[in-house]
Design a protein that fits this description.
The protein is an all-beta fold and 120 residues long. Helix content is 0%, strand content 55%. The chain has no helices and eleven strands. The mean pLDDT is 96.
Length: 120
Amino acid sequence: QVQLVESGGGLVQPGGSLRLSCATSGFTFSSYAMSWYRQAPGKERELVAAITGVGYRTNYADSVKGRFTISRDNVKNTVYLQMNFLKPEDTAVYYCNGRSSSPFGDYDYWGQGTQVTVSS
């Protein structure tokens, strides 16, 4: 079965760092673009960072550019989000996403989310 399991969330102080991991199984990981989304209370879910399956091209939301780094390991089938210089505005549930499109259909998988709270 398809699984995406996030870990690494928690409570950190402003200016601190956290690394999120998303371990996946049940699909061809290298064929999927992976991304991290987040959703804060009362807000829409937003794309934070994305990385392509093979070329490892990355894109970031302006709000996190220079602070967050997305990476992936196609041997471990795991995607990471390194978050530095965290701000209270980064507080949200962070979701791991895998997405692929083909002439035979589109596939879109989600993890359950992990809570990140930035507070003093």
